[in-house]
Amino acid sequence: MAHPNLHAKSSAKKFGGKPEDYIHLHEWLDETKSWYGDSLHRMFRHHSEGIFEMEQKFGTEFKNSDGKTVFTRYVGEQHVKEDCNNYIPSAKEWVLNMLKKERPIWMLKTVKLEFED
Prior knowledge:
This protein is mostly helical. The protein is built from six helices and two strands. A two-stranded antiparallel ribbon has the order 1-2. The longest helix has 12 residues. The two termini are 20 Å apart. The relative contact order is 0.19.
């Protein structure tokens, strides 16, 4: 399970700027860890509807510290893909798969984040 700081670092690598430009978005997506301390906390916001909710809350775009326009949705998509094995599920998919004995790989496996310091 990636920490919001690692997601922010990944965003800076992908979109430019500094991790501080993105941390508020990743903290919001992962805030649900305080509700449910398991990887299944993702069921609350790690889906297409959660990404659009994030866009409504924070706006459709912003300027990073490099002065580049970044679309909030793209940052949300990046985060969800990193946590859901390069896949963006819908909220419906989360609900339907919660009760299954065998869960899909996107619920179980994350993308490994690697950085050069």
